[in-house]
What does this fold into?
Amino acid sequence: MFTINAKLIPTPPLSYPKIWQLFHDLDLKIEAPQDRTAAVWSQNASFSEIRMSAPDNVQLSCSIEYSDVKEKKCALAQFDNDKQQWQFLFAPQRTGAHKLVIYARRQSDIKTTYDCVAQFDLNVTKLQKAIKFPLTYTKFQTNL
It folds into this structure.
């Protein structure tokens, strides 16, 4: 039996989102929320935000799932040029447990599909007003 003599235990305790090897291979970094497995949900919110940094040759995308079903027009990925970060917005349509999934690929990849790189949990306790984001297609990202 071991005794742990720890005096500086962070509150809340550190935790991390689920990540795949590709997250490291593409040199991605989570800017916010840091040291959490779950995204932040405010009581008066209509959406949640995640921010990440990525090299210039990496494209990112995202989705939100409820009961293992992707919600349409409820997630938006955009690049914030001022902060040089990717911003992901998630707009749940109901209360309960959601999965927020981040996808990535190199721009030089021949394949056009994105692979999972990170997954956060989101527990929506109260929803002020459900919102939707515009629907974008692959052609939109290609012509950025």
